[in-house]
Structure formats: structure tokens, C-alpha cells
């Protein structure tokens, strides 16, 4: 254990002392909030797809090569962004996947995220079973009923949930595995980018309102990152293998801008404290000056197949790159632990005015 901690300290030596202490467990107090509930896709899935007959699984090596205990279902080499956030919030343990959680575990929160999931029901269907946003919300509603039974009554549960953090990171697959995948979907022909973004926001609003109706009050809406800069899109559509795919990123910006407006809309509800994390901007910052953040390879996966190591995802037992701490991307789609630490840290405590609106997660937790 000591050697793994030393290795982690080496990889994240740039993290400020307090954050590093939180990661290593040398500074411990009560968590800043009683529970943390997570909704999303493969960027934050930590095992909910493991027992599905799905192509969207990561419960095999070399995934998890730097994670304690090895491959867990996380689509990266080590920590995800929500792992980082949970530690910075003061939780002793990582938030467990809903598929494995039961009883009192629900009281500290669970992770409902599912790889290949989208806002639209059909998104990601070519990869097999997954739990779309609607299904994740239904699972949360079931969890709330269990929490009411544990805590004794609805009022006690509602008061408890009002103090918890909820994070939603949905939408990447609706572009990656739907709108910009004409081989399997016709949404790109049926909708303009503006129409598609509005369709997504309309559905998203319904699901998030359900979370609010079931007790969510401190809610983090995480914007979609620069999907057009992923190794997979670079491999397919970038002439030089380095220039990001502009039409994909432009479409995503339309969605993100409407997500910001949604934050304002929800903050008019009684007791609501919604905020937006600008993952797109944080990625933009990384790509603008990666070396200042300890990264040197930003256009290819550490593990993968083909051009940019991005034409296929990381294969079982494939040998990944050795200098993982210098890579932005772990595979064709997903960031490395090194990148996730940067993104998670800036989500928790903003480093620029553009990182979060109207507040970062640290501030939200203190309300």
C-alpha cells in the first residue's frame, strides 16, 4: 500500500497540498455532505455495466491498471473525475456502483452511471444493453424509497437528501453514439444541430425535474467535453490526426449553452441550488497548454488500436503505454487518471471564472 501511495504522489505532484492530503487519506474529517449521487455514462461508470452482455464494459485489464484492486468497470487506468470529487468532498471510500450497493450504503450515495448511456433512449444501442438517463432516474427513485424505509419517513429522507450533492454528466453519447454516427442512426439527417440540442435539453429537463421531485436540491450539471478532440474522432475525421473536428465541437457547444440556461431555470425552484461545470472549457484549457499541466500527448490514446490509438478501444490484456501520467487520453474516448484529476479538481474548486457557473462544487457543498 505504501508503494502505491508513493506512486500516486509522484503522478500528481502538482496537486496542492490539501487536495493531495485528501487523496492519500492523511487528513480526515466528516464528509462535507452526507451523500453523493452520480448519473452519467462511461466517463464516470464504475461497474454498473459489468454484468451486462454489452460491448460497453471495462472490467478487464489493462483498464484499472493504476486503480487499487485493478479493473473495476472504470473506463480509465485509475481514478475517474467523480472519484476525485468524492475524495475532495471528504468521503473515505469511493461511491459504489448502484449494481453492487444495498441497504445502508445508499445513505452515502451511489453511482448510477452506465457506459454507452444517453439522454435519448436509443443512444448507444449498437453496443448492447445500457441504462439510459431515464433508467438511471428510475433506479434513483427506487433507491429513495429504500432510503425512506431506512430513515423512517419521507420528511426525514427529504431533509437528508437536500444536503447531498448530485452530479449529472450526460450527452456525450448522444453525439458520439447517435448524432454523428450515420451508419446506425438517422438523427443527423432528421435534426439540425440546434434542433437536436433542443430535443436533448427537453428530455434532460424532464429527467432532472424528476430528480428534484425526489429530493435533489444541490445539483451539478456537467457539460459535454470536446468530443471532437477525442482520438476516435481524430482518427476518423482529422486530416492531420491532431486538429479537432470542428462541426462536432460546434454542435456540442450549442447543447452546453442551453444547459447553462437550464441551470438558471432550475434555480427558480424552491430550495434549488443548481450549478454548471464547464468541462468543455477545462478541456480547451488543457489542450491550449498541456505541458503546464504535466501532459505531453493529447491526440492519441495510451491504449488502443489503429490511427491515433483511436480506431478501437483498449483490447483485453493489451499492453498500454508506460508514461500514462503524460497522456490526456487513456483510450479512444476516455481521459487518463492524470486528466481526470485535473478536471475533477477544477470541478470541485474552480481555477477560472469559466470553470463553473454560478459556483463550484466546493461552494455548493457549503450551502
UniProtKB/TrEMBL annotation:
Key words, A-Z: Hydrolase, Lipid degradation, Lipid metabolism, Secreted, Signal
Subcellular location: Secreted
A Pfam family annotated for this UniProt entry: Lipase_GDSL
Any one of the GO BP annotations: lipid catabolic process
CDD domains: SGNH_plant_lipase_like
Major site of localization recorded for this protein: secreted
Signal sequence, start to end: 1-29
A GO CC term assigned to this protein in UniProt: extracellular region
Keyword Electron transport appears in the UniProt entry: no
Any GO MF annotation of the entry: hydrolase activity, acting on ester bonds
Gene3D superfamilies: SGNH hydrolase
Family: Belongs to the 'GDSL' lipolytic enzyme family.
The protein, known as: GDSL esterase/lipase
Source organism (scientific name): Rhynchospora pubera
Organism taxonomic ancestry: Eukaryota, Viridiplantae, Streptophyta, Embryophyta, Tracheophyta
Amino acid at each position: 500500500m505504501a508503494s502505491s501511495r508513493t506512486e500516486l504522489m509522484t503522478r500528481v505532484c502538482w496537486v496542492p497540498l490539501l487536495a493531495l492530503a485528501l487523496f492519500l487519506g492523511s487528513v480526515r474529517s466528516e464528509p462535507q455532505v452526507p451523500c453523493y449521487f452520480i448519473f452519467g455514462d462511461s466517463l464516470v461508470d464504475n461497474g454498473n455495466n459489468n454484468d451486462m452482455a454489452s460491448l460497453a464494459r471495462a472490467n478487464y485489464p489493462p483498464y484499472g491498471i493504476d486503480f487499487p484492486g485493478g479493473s473495476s468497470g472504470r473506463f480509465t487506468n485509475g481514478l475517474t473525475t467523480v472519484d476525485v470529487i468524492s475524495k475532495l468532498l471528504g468521503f473515505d471510500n469511493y461511491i459504489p456502483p448502484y449494481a453492487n450497493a444495498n441497504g445502508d450504503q445508499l445513505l452515502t450515495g451511489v453511482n448510477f452511471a452506465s457506459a454507452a448511456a444517453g439522454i435519448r433512449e436509443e443512444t448507444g444501442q449498437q453496443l448492447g444493453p445500457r441504462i439510459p438517463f431515464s433508467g438511471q432516474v428510475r433506479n434513483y427513485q427506487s433507491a429513495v424509497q429504500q432510503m425512506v424505509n431506512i430513515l423512517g419517513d419521507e420528511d426525514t429522507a427529504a431533509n437528508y437528501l437536500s444536503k447531498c450533492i448530485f452530479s449529472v454528466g450526460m450527452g456525450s453519447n448522444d453525439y458520439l453514439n447517435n448524432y454523428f454516427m450515420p451508419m446506425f442512426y438517422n438523427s443527423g439527417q432528421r435534426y439540425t444541430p440546434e434542433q437536436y440540442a433542443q430535443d436533448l435539453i427537453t428530455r434532460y429537463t424532464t429527467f432532472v425535474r424528476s430528480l428534484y421531485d425526489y429530493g435533489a436540491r444541490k445539483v451539478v450539471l456537467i457539460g459535454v467535453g470536446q468530443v471532437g478532440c477525442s482520438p476516435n474522432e481524430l482518427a476518423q475525421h482529422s486530416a492531420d490526426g491532431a486538429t479537432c473536428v470542428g462541426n462536432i465541437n460546434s454542435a456540442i457547444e450549442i447543447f452546453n449553452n442551453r444547459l447553462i440556461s437550464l441551470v438558471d431555470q432550475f434555480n427558480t425552484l424552491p430550495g434549488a441550488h443548481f450549478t454548471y461545470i464547464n468541462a468543455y472549457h477545462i478541456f480547451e484549457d488543457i489542450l491550449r497548454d498541456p505541458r503546464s499541466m504535466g501532459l505531453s500527448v493529447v491526440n492519441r490514446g495510451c491504449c488502443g488500436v489503429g490511427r491515433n490509438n483511436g480506431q478501437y478501444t483498449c483490447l483485453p490484456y493489451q499492453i498500454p503505454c508506460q508514461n500514462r501520467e503524460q497522456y490526456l487520453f487513456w483510450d479512444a474516448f476516455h481521459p487518463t487518471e492524470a486528466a481526470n484529476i485535473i478536471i475533477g479538481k477544477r470541478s470541485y474548486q474552480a481555477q477560472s471564472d469559466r470553470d463553473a457557473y454560478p459556483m463550484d462544487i466546493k461552494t455548493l457543498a457549503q450551502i
